[in-house]
Backbone:
């Protein structure tokens, strides 16, 4: 049985669908802080399966333990966490408590119930401000904000845990920029308020919820001066988790993989891909650079390809089409 923490969230729900489609047994837990219970109905509509759900907070260790008491959990895919960079700068303790304490509770409970397989949602943010591209798994690590620090601390904790007990099987997945949505349009990303990330922002502009897109900086050393990132379709990302699970289900060890496409697209290239895929004009204006942003970030994907057999399949226009297909129907 696989426990998915944060399984009603954006990436967790897509991964739940992929695992159910492969007839894996899963349990979902989430405190619904940043997701809705209706996601469970969408998962059931897509897969015709209804996984058991616990509305539980990782900070509530006794309720967490109940999940392990009631189920034979062999592996945890750990998505649950807070992820808003700006908020983490304003409220670092909230982030340290939720993400780090929550993960400590999870790991202590896993150890107590002899569950020693975990796949962790890390991020390309752990590469800090590295400037040599592409980023490979041995690129230097660093942090630029409290959210990134929680990811790096949790990675470090997992490295220490594995060093102390090599029966653990651990995969650290460093995501680049997940966008897109399930092709059904039933699950996707729906952030509250003004989004930090490009694609939700573009969708809000496309729908008329926001007047125009701010493009932060057009004088970077890139193809058109705007920032370049490695966008990956959430469906590809979800498939990467299934591959990671297959990798560690029967072996021990600690493995780290980038999950990206290896291709960078500038902000204006994404805008134009969105316009082309959906036949909608996006108003934008050039705004000053945001502090902490770097010109270009993209992944070296060789290790994931060689060791996991992971290759992203979807292109940037697919990502733009599927993002909008989900977002346009939201009320
Ligand atoms: N989306 C991205 O761009 C991105 C990039 C890199 C890494 N990540 C990481 O991937 C993971 C999933 O991201 P996502 O985009 O699906 O985010 P999300 O907010 O949609 O999903 C996270 C889920 O975790 C739940 N959660 C948070 N704290 C919890 C707690 N203490 N107990 C129980 N549930 C809790 C939330 O309610 C939410 O449903 C996160 O750890 C995030 O940091 C995301």
Residues:
């Amino acid at each position: 049985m696989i426990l998915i923490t944060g399984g009603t969230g954006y990436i967790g729900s897509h991964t739940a669908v992929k695992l159910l489609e492969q007839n894996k047994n899963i349990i979902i837990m989430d405190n619904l802080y940043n997701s809705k219970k209706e996601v469970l109905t969408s998962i059931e509509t897509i897969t015709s399966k209804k996984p058991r759900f616990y509305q539980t907070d990782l900070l509530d260790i006794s309720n967490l333990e109940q999940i392990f008491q009631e189920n034979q959990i062999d592996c945890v895919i750990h998505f649950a966490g807070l992820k808003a960079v700006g908020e983490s700068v304003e409220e670092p303790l909230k982030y340290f408590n939720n993400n780090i304490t929550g993960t400590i509770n999870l790991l202590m409970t896993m150890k107590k119930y002899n569950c020693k397989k975990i796949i962790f949602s890390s991020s390309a943010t752990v590469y800090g401000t590295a400037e040599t591209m592409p980023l490979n798994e041995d690129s230097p690590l660093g942090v630029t904000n409290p959210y990134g620090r929680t990811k790096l601390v949790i990675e470090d904790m997992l490295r220490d845990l594995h060093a102390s007990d090599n029966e653990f099987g651990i995969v650290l997945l460093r995501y680049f920029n997940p966008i897109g949505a399930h092709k059904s349009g039933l699950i996707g990303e729906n952030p509250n308020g003004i989004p930090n990330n490009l694609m939700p922002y573009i969708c809000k502009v496309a729908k008329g919820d926001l007047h125009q897109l701010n493009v932060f900086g057009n004088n970077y050393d890139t193809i058109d001066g705007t920032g370049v990132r490695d966008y990956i379709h959430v469906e590809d990302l979800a498939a990467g988790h299934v591959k990671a699970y297959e990798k560690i289900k029967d072996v021990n060890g600690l493995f780290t993989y980038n999950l990206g496409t290896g291709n960078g697209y500038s902000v204006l290239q994404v805008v134009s891909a969105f316009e082309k895929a959906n036949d909608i004009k996006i108003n934008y204006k050039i705004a000053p650079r945001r502090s902490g942003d770097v010109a270009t970030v993209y992944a070296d994907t060789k290790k994931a390809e060689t060791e996991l057999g992971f290759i992203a399949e979807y292109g940037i226009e697919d990502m733009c089409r599927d993002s909008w297909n989900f977002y346009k129907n939201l009320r």
In short: Residues 6, 8-12, 30-35, 57-59, 79-83, 98, 102, 121, 123, 175, 178 surround nicotinamide-adenine-dinucleotide (CB under 6 Å). The first helix runs from residue 10 to 21.
